[in-house]
Design a protein that fits this description.
The chain is α/β, with parallel strands linked by helices. The chain folds into 2 domains: 8-103 and 277-364, Isopropylmalate Dehydrogenase, CATH 3.40.718; 110-267, 3-Layer(aba) Sandwich (Isopropylmalate Dehydrogenase). The chain is built from 11 helices and 12 strands. A hairpin with a 7-residue loop joins strand 6 (145-148) and strand 7 (156-159). Helix 1 (22-35) runs parallel beside helix 11, helix 5 (165-181) packs across helix 6 and helix 9 (303-315) runs antiparallel to helix 10 (319-334). It is globular. The termini are far apart. 47% of the residues are buried. The chain binds nicotinamide-adenine-dinucleotide (NAD), 3-isopropylmalic acid (IPM) and manganese (II) ion (MN). Residues 21, 25, 78-80, 87, 90, 94, 268-269, 285, 288-294, 300-301, 304, 341 line the site of nicotinamide-adenine-dinucleotide.
């Protein structure tokens, strides 16, 4: 009898650092993953502006299929380069992954690790611990529409907001399921799902979100279903972030409110995210962009990328390593082993090294 080849237990991770500070923060995340002894093997991909500018290729033919077939997860840095004014490669790679791999649930936690990181008065870590679930495959991001009579006085630009019942329903259901199955950082249960829209002005799309939210919420009588218009939500988030638990919203509003949320929890350098389709290869990326002005200066905060790696390890079932990363990041913040954006004096590499060392010393 021919024996089966040994099955590799290692999780296979595709790594796409991308552009700008993506190329600085992702190596630190990898350093820390390896310090935690996580059983993973990584493969680097050079997709990004340099390659796009040299050979015109953003995603090689069959690229997304390869990622889905050969990898358990994808760890991404950021895309965007001043030399590519159209941002075409970033759209093709980043939005390409989200859309073509149908990664419909963009999970963006906002968790304050230390009171000193919040620009608001009197807000403690227990007061700011919510999660935004952003619809990630439709809305205004499909880029449907067009331009008519370009560069004339009669020019018309149409940008269509695409909302399907299937797309709206699955992200809303995901939000309720997420709320049911996840706790806050302090171990308490999540209990409330708030849907955020602009249905007072945009009645067609907003109406669909309203109807579907009502329908799906009936399946979860144990959870509170709430609603806010997006403008009011922005005001409330700054006035009193304690009131938020799980927020579900469309693609564009999710993009905007997660930068606002990041600003309340230490800035973009701290914000992590996951792009999920249950059962499929999912993608993990910090919320920040390529930050061209600080790129190449060893100034970028790698903690958002490290927390992103922790989300990936949780997703892959490598819970012990994931917890080690999170604990070590918390220690780094508390002990001010941070980059200048958080008031520290260390560089990107030094923060990564400190976190890795903390894990190896067993302190975290
Ligand atoms: P950005 O997130 O790159 O930067 C916004 C601000 O936050 C800048 O002041 C920057 O210095 C700071 N910042 C961001 N990340 C930081 C970090 N880790 N440490 C310290 N400071 C950090 O957003 P932007 O300036 O609007 O965009 C720059 C480029 O990045 C554009 O091309 C944009 O399209 C792209 N972008 C990409 C992604 C992504 O790939 N996921 C996300 C956002 C923006
Ligand atoms: C993000 C980014 C992207 C988005 C851009 C780069 C297209 O801002 O991931 O938040 O708008 O989704
Ligand atoms: Mn954004």
């Amino acid at each position: 009898m021919v024996p089966f080849p040994p099955v590799s237990e290692k999780k296979r991770i595709a790594v796409i650092p991308g552009d700008g500070i993506g190329k600085e923060v992702i190596p630190e995340a990898l350093k820390v993953i390896s310090a935690a002894g996580a059983d993973v093997e990584t493969t680097q991909f050079d997709w990004g502006a340099d390659r796009f500018l040299s050979d015109g290729v953003s995603v090689p033919p069959g690229g997304f299929a390869l990622l889905e077939r050969d990898f358990d997860a994808i760890l991404v840095g950021a895309f965007g380069d001043p030399r590519v004014s159209s941002n075409l490669h970033a759209k093709q790679i980043l939005l390409g992954m989200r859309f073509q791999m149908d990664l419909y649930a963009n999970i963006r936690p906002a968790r304050l690790l230390d009171a000193g990181l919040c620009p608001l008065k009197g807000v403690e870590p227990k007061d700011l611990d919510f999660v935004v679930l952003r619809e990630n495959t439709e809305g205004l991001y499909t880029d449907a529409g067009g331009v008519f009579k370009q560069d004339t006085a009669d020019e018309i630009a149409v940008q269509e907001d695409i909302n399907t019942r299937k797309g709206v329903e699955r992200i809303i259901r995901y939000a309720f399921e997420y709320c049911r199955h996840h706790s806050k950082g302090d171990g308490s249960r999540r209990q409330r799902v708030l849907m955020c829209d602009k249905s007072n002005a945009m009645t067609h799309a907003g109406g669909l979100w309203q109807r579907v939210f009502r329908e799906v919420s009936r399946e979860f009588p144990q959870l509170r279903a709430e609603h806010m218009y997006v403008d009011a939500l922005c005001m409330q988030m700054v006035r009193d972030p304690r009131q938020f638990d799980v927020i579900v919203t469309n693609n564009l509003f999710g993009d905007i409110i997660t930068d606002l949320a990041a600003g309340l929890a230490g800035g973009l350098g701290m914000a992590a995210s996951a792009n999920i389709h249950p059962g499929k290869t999912s993608m993990f990326e910090p919320v920040h962009g390529s930050a061209p002005l600080i790129a190449g200066k060893n100034m970028a905060n790698p903690l958002g990328a490290i927390l992103t790696a922790a989300m990936m390890l949780h997703h892959l079932g490598l819970t012990r390593a994931a917890n080690q990363l999170e604990d070590a990041v918390l220690d780094a913040v508390r002990q001010k082993k941070t980059t200048p954006d958080l008031g520290g004096t260390l560089g990107t590499r030094e923060v990564g090294e400190w976190v890795a060392d903390r894990i190896m010393r067993g302190g975290a």
